[in-house]
Design a protein that fits this description.
The chain is of the alpha+beta class. Helices cover 23% and strands 28% of the residues. The protein has two domains: 5-76, Gyrase A, domain 2; 89-224, Cyclophilin-like (Cyclophilin), CATH 2.40.100. Residues 4-204 form the Carboxyltransferase domain.
């Protein structure tokens, strides 16, 4: 396993880099260190921000510095913690109707799969929340099956509705706001990820797992309007 590198960021943070490529092993190491140092915080630490391949550790530069923080983190790298790599499993509902999935045919053509096979392959993926970023509630999921991985588009498309289920390379995401994206849109979800709860504003925690479950249009419309199926 690659030895992590420590990269100073401004005068108040240290980036711990575990690798160059996204993998389950690298994600697990990021999440492990994140838990260790939040359970046993080094002196002066303020906040941690986990991502797929690295962990940003912010600290108070008035009481510590990069060298002291690096020493504290290195001392915790081999700590044994009771950390479940599975996380909580969340069901995310998705409707794959054509008008909600404008890139379904393009992904089918790019992968050599039929549209139904694209949907079934997407449903079969084992997804895990690796990080939040870009916009509120944007949970980046690893686990897109290799046969379904397509590159992002050459140019972003504007005004993509919230709830769009999008993929690019090995990652998947459910949008929470109407925003542009260059990712491929496979469907739309009524599952609420960005919530009006200051104590828990997002549905997922980093490390949680996601299982997509297919619903039909009637179920989607009912749930979108706040009903139940």
């Amino acid at each position: 396993m690659q030895t992590p590198s420590f990269i100073p960021v401004a005068d108040h943070a240290l980036l711990v880099q575990f690798g160059e490529d996204i993998s389950d092993a690298v994600i697990a190491r990021v999440q492990m260190l994140d838990k260790v140092i939040n359970d046993d915080a080094p002196f002066g630490m303020r906040e941690t921000v986990p991502a797929f391949i690295n962990l940003l550790v912010e600290f108070d530069p008035l009481v510590t510095d990069h060298d002291e923080m690096e020493q504290a983190l290195r001392a915790r790298l081999d700590a044994e913690v009771a950390l479940s790599r599975d996380g909580i499993l969340h069901d995310v509902l998705v409707c794959y109707d054509e008008d909600l999935a404008p890139d379904l045919m393009a992904v089918a053509q790019a992968t050599g799969l039929s549209p139904d096979a694209v949907i079934n392959t997407h449903l079969s993926g084992a997804y895990q929340v690796g990080m939040y970023g870009f916009a509120p509630g944007y949970a980046y999921l690893s686990g897109v099956p290799e046969t379904l991985q397509v590159p992002r588009k050459a140019a972003a498309v504007r005004d993509i509705p919230a709830g769009s289920v999008i993929i690019a390379g090995p990652q998947c995401l459910v949008t929470t706001l109407t925003m542009p994206t260059g990712w491929s849109i496979l469907g739309r979800s009524p599952t609420e990820i960005l919530r009006n709860d200051p104590e828990r504003p997002f549905l997922f925690d980093v490390g949680d797992r996601v299982k997509f479950k297919r619903i039909d249009r009637a179920q989607y419309e009912t749930l979108r309007k706040g009903g139940t199926t």
